[in-house]
Every structure is written in C-alpha cells, then in structure tokens.
From TrEMBL:
Protein name: Uncharacterized protein
Species for this entry: Rubidibacter lacunae KORDI 51-2
Amino acid sequence: MEAKLAIQLEVFDMVVTAVQDRREAGKSLPKQQQAASTLP
C-alpha cells in the first residue's frame, strides 16, 4: 500500500512539474497559443 502511494505521489509530482514547464513555455508564446496550451 505504501509503495503504491509513493508511486502515485511521484507521478503527481511529475505532472505538476510538466504543467509548470508548460506555463513557463507559454509565457513566451502569443496569448492565443498560451490559452490553447492550458487546455487538456
């Protein structure tokens, strides 16, 4: 159970990092593309 939870936390951290990277990249793009990049 603990190992499964640790894996979930690791995946969640990866997702959060990826989202932050996309937001940082989005700041250098035009607003139209930035708005599109926030969609799933």
